[in-house]
């Protein structure tokens, strides 16, 4: 697994109590994420990787792999 | 040797009436589980009809003076966004009710960051040599300013007051405030607003609308700004005073939302176990939140003399501020029931 993907999965499991069966490919729609998780993740990603990706774009990315693609693109989707 | 401001007494209180999440659920469309998971709040206390912010401030001030073992100060700084009225300030009345004589007293408006701003003002007054002792109070009653149909605010706020006595002392002694980092950003002034009572609302030349009486807050934007500013301010302060995040025994942030505080800890790479939480039992008490949390933790022994403590807060304005101290040996009474 990509290092960034692994890190984000770890954050979701350890900090946000997401089911530890999650992988980078798990669809967010299959998880019970409350409305604040993506907001929290958005702040942490900005601090660690640079771009501020709004929480609705993180959710729309669909999975951790999708988020990694956004981070790699370096900026939020238009 | 330079003069430092040293914490020498602390006290806090909440009103008698406890409002749990189940009662809140009768006012807005929510439930206990939703409130707990989104905010960490389990209950809060609301002032009874007829009780003003100044009334709460007097009691908190009395407790802080008692904790310090003094019956006089040279200045009262009262941080509040919900004063007894727009004019006159509430501080003179608080000073009079506490029997402090004709000392100067003024209100300070910096929303939830008000108490740190108050500590900063008091520290300046002491450092300049104009005051030997200062009473700083943070107090707010938001319960009467909440739109019962607005879940963003109705579930969060509690009423309360907290106070500290600062005295002139040595920069090296426990209780000395090691430094301050304050900031504001008026570009985001609309994220948390209470229009009623202000000149802008009056200048519209229109009658007061019902909504003008209520605090309006854009929660999600506040969330990200709060994390950014508290983490940024804390980091800047620690760097300035030569402390490291790993040195901290307690990270005491404004008690608005447990998930904001945990996220601040995460981005600072601090241990979440070091985050002092009190909001579960009192909600967001605005300017009172930091002294309430400190008083509670000092009373139950979590805060021990010699602990390295970072205080950081954030509120409407936007306004934010941080300070740090080695916790001194001060007496404290629990401000609210534990169960």
TrEMBL record, chain A:
It comes from the Bacteria. Signal peptide: none annotated. InterPro entries: ACP-like_sf, PP-bd_ACP. Residues 1-75 form the Carrier domain. It holds the Pfam family PP-binding. This is Carrier domain-containing protein. It comes from Streptomyces caeruleatus.
From TrEMBL, chain B:
One of its GO terms (molecular function) is beta-ketoacyl-acyl-carrier-protein synthase III activity. Residues 255-259 are annotated as: ACP-binding. Keywords: Acyltransferase, Cytoplasm, Fatty acid biosynthesis, Fatty acid metabolism, Lipid biosynthesis, Lipid metabolism, Multifunctional enzyme, Transferase. Its main location: cytoplasm. It is found in: Cytoplasm. It comes from the Bacteria. One of its GO terms (cellular component) is cytoplasm. Pfam families: ACP_syn_III, ACP_syn_III_C. CDD domains: KAS_III. The active site is at residues 112, 254, 284. Pathway: Lipid metabolism; fatty acid biosynthesis. InterPro entries: ACP_syn_III_C, ACP_syn_III_N, FabH, Thiolase-like. The last Arg residue of the ACP-binding site is essential for the weak association between ACP/AcpP and FabH. Belongs to the thiolase-like superfamily. FabH family. Catalyzes the condensation reaction of fatty acid synthesis by the addition to an acyl acceptor of two carbons from malonyl-ACP. Catalyzes the first condensation reaction which initiates fatty acid synthesis and may therefore play a role in governing the total rate of fatty acid production. Possesses both acetoacetyl-ACP synthase and acetyl transacylase activities. Its substrate specificity determines the biosynthesis of branched-chain and/or straight-chain of fatty acids. This is Beta-ketoacyl-[acyl-carrier-protein] synthase III. It comes from Streptomyces caeruleatus. The gene is fabH.
């Amino acid at each position: 697994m990509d290092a960034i993907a692994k890190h984000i999965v770890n954050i979701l499991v350890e900090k946000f109590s997401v089911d530890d069966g999650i992988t980078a490919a798990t669809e967010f729609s299959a998880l019970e994420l409350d409305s604040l998780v993506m907001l929290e993740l958005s702040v942490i990603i900005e601090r660690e990787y640079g771009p501020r990706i709004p929480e609705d774009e993180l959710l729309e990315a669909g999975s951790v792999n999708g988020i990694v693609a956004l981070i790699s693109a370096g900026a939020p989707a238009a | 040797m330079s003069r430092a401001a040293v914490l020498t007494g602390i006290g806090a209180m909440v009103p008698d009436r406890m409002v749990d999440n189940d009662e809140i659920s009768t006012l807005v469309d929510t439930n206990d589980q939703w409130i707990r998971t989104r905010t960490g709040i389990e209950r809060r206390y609301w002032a009874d009809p007829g009780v003003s912010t100044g009334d709460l401030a007097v009691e908190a001030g009395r407790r802080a003076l008692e904790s310090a073992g003094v019956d006089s100060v040279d200045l009262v700084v009262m941080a509040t966004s919900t004063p007894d009225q727009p004019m006159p300030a509430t501080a003179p009345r608080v000073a009079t009710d506490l029997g402090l004589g004709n000392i100067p007293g003024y209100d300070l408006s910096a929303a939830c960051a008000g108490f740190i701003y108050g500590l900063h003002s008091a520290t300046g007054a002491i450092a300049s040599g104009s005051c030997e002792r200062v009473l700083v109070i943070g107090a707010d009653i938001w319960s009467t300013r909440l739109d019962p149909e607005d879940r963003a605010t109705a579930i969060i706020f509690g009423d309360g007051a907290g106070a500290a006595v600062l005295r002139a002392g040595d920069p090296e002694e426990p209780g000395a405030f090691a430094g301050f980092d304050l900031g504001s950003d008026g570009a985001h002034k609309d994220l948390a607003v209470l229009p009623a009572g202000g000149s802008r609302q009056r200048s519209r030349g229109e009658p007061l609308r019902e909504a003008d009486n209520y605090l309006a807050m854009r929660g999600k934007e506040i969330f990200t700004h709060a994390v950014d500013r508290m983490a940024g301010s804390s980091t800047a302060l620690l760097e300035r005073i030569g402390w490291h995040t790993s040195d901290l025994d307690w990270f005491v942030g404004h008690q608005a939302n447990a998930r904001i505080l945990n996220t601040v800890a995460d981005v600072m790479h601090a241990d979440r176990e070091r985050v002092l939480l009190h909001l579960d039992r009192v909600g967001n008490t605005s300017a009172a939140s930091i002294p309430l949390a400190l008083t509670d933790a000092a009373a139950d022994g979590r805060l021990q003399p010699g602990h390295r403590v970072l205080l950081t807060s954030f509120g409407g304005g936007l306004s934010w501020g941080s300070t740090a101290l080695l916790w001194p040996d001060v007496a404290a009474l629990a401000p609210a029931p534990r169960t």
